[in-house]
Amino acid sequence: MAVETTRWGILYCPKSSKTTKHKRWERIRQLLDERHVAYDMVQSENSDSVARLITMLINNGYKTIVVVGGDSALNDAVNCLMLEEKRVRDEIVLGVIPNGVMNDFARFWNFDEENDEQTIEWLMKRHVRKVDLGCIRYTSKEGERCHRYFLNCVNIGMTADIMNLRRQTRRLFGSRTLSFLSSLLVMFFHRMDYKMRLRINTDVIDRKVMTVCVGNGPGYGQTPSAVPYSGQLDVSVVYNAEATQLITGLWLLITGRFLNHHSVHAFRTREVFVDEAKKALVGIDGRLMKTPVGEYRIQVEQEVINFLIPN
After folding, report:
1. In a 3-state reduction of DSSP, which class is residue 218?
2. Residue 33 class from Cβ within 10 Å (0-12 exposed, 13-18 middle, 19+ buried)?
């Protein structure tokens, strides 16, 4: 039986902390009930279950799907939506209540994890905007032609490497903060450049590169001028730098002035061709993916997802 068109389908992606995950949902549930929002909630068991649950909500006819989660969960949601016919996709609106390790896309729209009241009020006003998606098209190790959409960014090289180190150190330390700090420390003794060949507009970059960020959104501070409704991708290419310059770069990243670093070269384009990026890991919206085999390309698809934003 089809659900009412006004009823929300909510996917709750709890953080790993056992002491806070139930309290967070209880707080959100209370706010929804006080405002008489009609909704049904499903909870993910782990990251692998997100796509299955989003597909279930789509197939059950929910026209408003709200993800209580971070960038990776939103990434799964948009990739599920992009599997649907345009007719079906155009009837569905996606929203977010930030609750992830990385909430960069939500933060771009001024959604605040510490202010659920405001977030829910904004979602209830149902101000919809069509947003762009980036798309990486690549060949897998099995020789299959694949693609993956992203809302925020694709990272190639050192930043994706940090994601991998962070995942490994988190298993050791348990704490997100400790794993991030230890990853940064290990990074100084880790390989920090990769042989790449990139084609961006009329420019050809054929040299050692530290990291590349292709942003449909702010890219965790690496593409701070990118907006997901311009039909363009922002690209930051960082050449290899000394350790002291790297510290300066981190400071500029934290203070929102990343593009001011002399090792950062910025571009704006609709398409990036990666002809070569030997052994460089790739991260999509904060989640590490398997390294593509051979060349791949990253492009933008304009105004393809309905997203709930503040008015």
Report:
1. coil
2. exposed
Coil, strand or helix at 166:
helix
| Amino acid type, 248 | T
> Cα(148)–Cα(15) distance, rounded to whole angstroms?
24
The Cα 262–Cα 287 span in angstroms is 28
With a CB cutoff of 8 Å and minimum separation 6, the contacts of 196 are 156, 157, 205, 206, 207, 208, 209, 212, 274, 276, 277, 278, 280
The 10s digit of each residue's pLDDT in 193-245 is 889 999 999 999 999 988 899 999 998 888 989 999 999 999 999 886 554 44
Q: State the amino acid at position 276 in one-letter form.
A: E
Angle at 283 between CA 278 and CA 287, to 5 degrees: 145
pTM of the predicted model, to two decimals? 0.87
- pLDDT under 70 in the chain at which residues? 1-2, 16-21, 163-192, 240-262
Instruction: Determine the angle formed by the axes of helices 21-34 and 116-125, rounding to 10 degrees.
Output: 50
Report the C-alpha dihedral over residues 104, 107, 111, 114, rounded to 10 degrees: 80
| Predicted local distance difference test score (pLDDT) of residue 109 | 97
Which structure tokens are listed for 258?
A: 């990343």
* pLDDT tens by residue, 4-30: 788 999 999 987 655 555 788 999 999
Burial class (CB in 10 A: 0-12, 13-18, 19+), 7: middle
Helix (H, G, I), strand (E, B), or coil: what is residue 1?
A: coil
